[in-house]
């Protein structure tokens, strides 16, 4: 029995052009009218997901690679670095690659040392910071643009934190040890009172693999990376074919 729908955004619920189809909105609305809870689980920062949160109006929002859970304006869960660890990672990144672009998320606030914030689709609401002084915040997630994965892995190992890579990108995420979408789902299950066995999860990327394995049903869209396809219980149509909506119509609405 599906009691909670949990979907990744990019390349999963969203089409390649970043849109959400009318059909997807219709199907999600039909599921919710049947009493099914809807949540998103995205690597995006909260401010990067905000326009989709406004459009989809989920019951719960897992953002920032699983380090934050919100419901409306309320923060229900936060996994974070200490202030000392935050500062250590930022300094390590700047020392390894001077001039590297770095974003630091602290709750819904995101700091960024880019001079092109206003031009960013995802992070135009970020706050500029050149990191010349200590931030004095407990970061949920730190992301850096680096030349290669080897540099990222070395810093992650030295810092004792989790490293998350994304397909086709040279941006690397540094996350608190033990964090991620699976930890957030376990927390969400307790918060909502819904068993993990009653959750159907949809994803496409390597950071969705454990989520697909954990939930009662793990569904990969056809355009998913091989690891996600292998981890899934079922494979639906691609994101551009509204794969999430298609699976829900067949299996939840009837």
Structure description:
- This protein is an alpha/beta fold and 254 residues long.
- It has two domains: 4-78 and 179-253, 3-Layer(aba) Sandwich (Rossmann fold); 83-175, Hypothetical Protein, Haloacid Dehalogenase-like Hydrolase, Chain: A, domain 2, CATH 3.30.1240.10.
- It is built from nine helices and 14 strands.
- It has helices at 9-13, 22-33, 46-56, 83-96, 149-159, 181-192, 209-214, 226-231, 243-253, and strands at 4-7, 37-41, 60-63, 68-71, 74-78, 102-106, 109-112, 127-128, 141-145, 162-165, 171-175, 199-203, 217-221, 234-236.
- The strands form two sheets. An eight-stranded mixed β-sheet has the order 5-4-3-2-1-12-13-14, with helices on both faces.
- Strand 3 (60-63) and strand 4 form a beta hairpin.
- Helix 2 runs parallel beside helix 9 (243-253).
- The longest helix has 14 residues, at 83-96.
- The radius of gyration is 18 Å and the shape is globular.
- The model has no long low-confidence stretch (mean pLDDT 96).
Strand content: 15-25%
Give the name of the CATH architecture of the largest domain.
3-Layer(aba) Sandwich
Structural class: alpha/beta
Could you report the average pLDDT, rounded to the nearest whole number? 96
Contiguous low-pLDDT stretches (5 residues minimum) are none
- Straight-line distance between termini: 13 Å
Main sheet characteristics = 8 strands, mixed
Give the overall silhouette: globular
Helix content: 25-40%
């Amino acid at each position: 029995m599906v009691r909670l729908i949990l979907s990744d955004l990019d390349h999963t619920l969203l089409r390649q052009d970043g849109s959400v189809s009318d059909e997807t909105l219709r199907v999600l609305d039909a599921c919710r009218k049947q009493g099914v809870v809807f949540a998103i689980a995205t690597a995006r920062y909260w401010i990067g997901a905000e326009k989709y949160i406004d459009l989809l109006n989920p019951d719960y929002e897992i953002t920032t690679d699983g380090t934050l859970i919100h419901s409306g304006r309320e923060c229900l869960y936060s996994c974070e670095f200490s202030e000392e660890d935050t500062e250590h990672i930022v300094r390590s990144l700047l020392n390894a690659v001077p001039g590297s672009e770095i974003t630091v998320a602290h709750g819904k606030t995101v700091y960024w040392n880019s001079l092109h914030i206003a031009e960013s689709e995802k992070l135009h609401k970020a706050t500029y910071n050149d990191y010349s002084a200590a931030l004095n915040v407990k970061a949920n997630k730190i992301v850096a643009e680096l030349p290669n994965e080897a540099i990222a892995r070395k810093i992650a190992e030295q810092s004792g934190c989790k490293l998350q890579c994304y397909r086709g990108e040279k941006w690397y995420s540094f996350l608190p040890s033990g964090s991620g979408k699976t930890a957030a789902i376990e927390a969400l299950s307790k918060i909502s009172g819904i068993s993990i066995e009653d959750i159907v999860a949809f994803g496409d990327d390597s950071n969705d693999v454990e989520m697909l394995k954990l939930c009662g049903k793990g569904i990969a869209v056809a355009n998913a990376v091989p690891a996600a396809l292998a981890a899934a219980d079922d494979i639906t149509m691609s994101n551009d074919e509204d794969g999430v909506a298609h699976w829900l119509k067949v299996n939840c609405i009837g």
